[in-house]
Amino acid sequence: MENLVFTQLSIPEVRQLFRQELEQFFKALPCAPPKSAINAENLSTRQKTAKKLNISLPTLDDYTRRGIIRGYRVGRRVLYRPEDVEAALTEINTVKYQRA
């Protein structure tokens, strides 16, 4: 635990100390890439994504609203990343012809 020392400081000195602490705090934070760093060249349109999954556009809209497939809005368009489409696909284990 740090020792506390009470002294009289002027307002400019308090501001300077506060500014230094904030600068140190923000320098220590990891830099995250901006959200706009998504490569727009790899994104697929709704039509291409629905055709790839062999589903209709209303079904794709429903999946997007329910959070099954993540979509990205660019203006009025909704685009999909291939990684998100692949992540939405899950394997189903069938038990057809299983004997007891």
From TrEMBL:
InterPro entries assigned to the protein according to its UniProt record, in alphabetical order: DNA-bd_dom_put_sf (IPR009061), HTH_17 (IPR041657)
Domain Helix-turn-helix span(s) in chain numbering: 48-90
A Pfam family hit: HTH_17
Protein known as: Helix-turn-helix domain-containing protein
Native organism taxonomy: Bacteria, Pseudomonadati, Bacteroidota, Cytophagia, Cytophagales
